[in-house]
Every structure is written in C-alpha cells, then in structure tokens.
Amino acid sequence: MADLFLNRVLVENNWDQDELNTEREITGILENRILMLFFASAECGRCQDFLPLLNDFFKRLKDPAYIEYPKLLTLVYISLDQSEAQQERFLKDLHKKVLFLTFDDPYKKELQVKFKVKEVPTVVVLRPDCSVLSSNAVQDIRHLGCDCFRDWQESAELIERSFMLNEEFDNLNLRSATDPVRRLKYRTEDDKRKKRWWKFWGKDRDKSEEEDQLNDATLDRKGKEEDKGTWRRR
Length: 234
Description:
alpha/beta; seven-stranded mixed sheet; 7 strands; 13% strand
C-alpha cells in the first residue's frame, strides 16, 4: 500500500497542514490499512452533497469520540479542482484526519487514469496490497453507511489491534497488528514448558521421597538386628 505514495508528499488536513514525505511516515500511516481515494471537486454539486455523508462515515470509524478503537482506514483526497483556492475551500469541509496531495502534484492525474475515474464523486477502495476492493463505493457509503466497512475488512482479511489484550496496549507503536496472535502462541508454549518442568520436578521429588523411605526402612532393619545381637550376648 505504501508503495502507491512513496516518493510523494501527502499533507495532513490539519491546521498546520503537516507534510508526510519520508518512507517511514508514509509507511506508518498506510501500512496494513484499507485505503480510500476520494476523487472530487469543489465545483461539483454532487460532491458537495456527498461530503457530509463521507465525513460522518469517516469520523464514526476513526474519531475516538465515536469509537473506542479507530479502524484501520485511511482517506486521501485526490483533488480534481481547477484552482488551488477551490481545493482549499473543499478541504475546509473535509475531516481533519484526511490526507491530500498538493494542488500542483501531477500524480493526481496519474491516479485518475490508473483507477479509471470517469466521474466525481468517486471513492476507490483498496486493500493493503493495493488491489481494488471497490472501484466506486459512493453508493455503498450512501446506503450502507459504516456497515460496508465490515465487508471491506473481511475481504481484506485485516487483523485489528482491538484484538489485543488491555495490558498489551502499552507502547502500542512498537507492536504490529499480528502481535497479539504471536503473544498468545508464545504464552501457550510457555505454559507447556512450565507444565513439563513441574511434571519433571514432581517426578524427581517423588523419587527422592521413595529413596528416603527405603533408606529409613534399611536403617530400622539394621537397628533391630543390632538390638537382637546385643540381647543374645546378654
């Protein structure tokens, strides 16, 4: 997924419009996520009508105010505006966690051709491997709302971080999405090793107790024999 935007500059739609331009930054925000490419224009009436629905869809899946664990989803606005002022006006109404390409980036046209975008609004939905889940999800978002994300997620076979146990959320950035699966596996192996050790230790303990009992019995027998010999001499 990150390969689609490597060597490009993605901009965050926040107050400072922070730029993401390193491989680490691009990979960190796109890896193991479903990617939505939103092709639209400020001068398009249908785009303006669809925008509130898209914002609501996105915030219900990403905003902590609406959901405990934000979904593995990224939205990138691909502007087909005729001027930078139009693009800026449209961005003001988009959710602040949306990413976008700069107005003068020619890559926007390449993406339009690559995904055969013929009309706006268009929302192209991609799996983490960049294969297409939906060539235009506008109608799905309109009619199904957040439920359509569940279908995308199952098709993409994503592993959610929300699967992680509570104590595993410490230092979350250092964990991968499959980390909880590996952790459960390793815990199981640790339990098996512990059981084997206790079983082995238990056998040794039983064996030692048996040896002690035999030694005690031998000493008692010898003591009795010595007592008998002393009694005969008397």
